[in-house]
Amino acid sequence: AASRLACEQELARAIKAEGQVLIGWRDVPVDMDMPMSPTVREKEPVIRQIFIGRGHDVIVPDALERKLYVIRKTASSAIQALQLTHSREYYVPSMSCRTVIYKGLLLADQVGKYYKDLADPRVVSAIALVHQRFSTNTFPEWPLAHPYRMVCHNGEINTVKGNFNWMRAREGVMKSPVLGDDLQKLYPISFEHQSDTATFDNAIELLTMAGYPLAHAAMMMIPEAWEQHEGMDERRRAFYEYHAAMMEPWDGPAAMAFTDGRQVCAALDRNGLRPARYCITDDDLVVMASESGVLPIPESKIVKKWRLQPGKMFLIDLEQGRIVDDEELKNQFANARPYRQWIENVRVKLD
Fold first, then answer.
1. For residue 316, what pLDDT is reported?
2. Which end of the chain, N or C, is less surrounded by CB atoms within 10 Å?
3. Options 3.30.1490.100, 3.40.50.300, 1.20.58.760, 3.60.20.10; CATH of 125-351
4. pTM (2 d.p.)
């Protein structure tokens, strides 16, 4: 209880330091009588929800989202520095004005029973990311359940150690006109001993908070096989070549789904080693999963069935109310800047 109180006080301090308003706390209602494994029950955390109001300096939701990001990161670093007896048990699943995450060491069908909020008819969402994690390279724990703050992921990122080290090495030289001086408060971006998905999630979150659109950040992190692809549009190849100097690919057999609350996007690794199948119904429901038939949808309602192909992306823009296909999405970003010219301007060739 003392550790928990210290964590709450540190969060309150971070909110005040960033000029925002602490409105209050709520105990998240859970079903204490739901059957679960004794091992899981033993590690069951106390789950509380915090409410934060925007300060006078915040006008648009994007600015509030960035402030919440800074609050979460600075409070988390301060709490780890306190070296409390139970500080490793402190974890913030989500702190956002657009998304809320319910997760736990549970089976997929238990989440809606355990969290009573999800049975409330007032809880309505246009999107849902749901994932039942099969732990491969880390032992199952409550914080490691998917989804993370932006991502859920089927597969492995085999390059994660190198990606982590490069991210850590760049912390001293990164700049962002959007985050400004707040960028220094966010380090470290990732912590040691996180899972591969958590490390990926930290990186894509940083990119989107720094102003990159969600799909642009995903193209930087999970590029297509572009180097020897002679049939690829030259401007798209220039996009990948330019960004390859900024960030190494996060490679491995992976099907990724991510959202920022305004768009929901999926991407498949360049080798297509994980399945991702989707269907679209006549009433505009889109279901994507690692298998077809995960939900009982009558065949008569399905207007399209297909699969995500290697290196391809699939995006639903909730603000535009439409699906954006891979070709349109990538052309939009590839044609937005003169990437080939930028490369030629700074490239030095050694004979």
1. 96
2. C
3. 3.60.20.10
4. 0.91
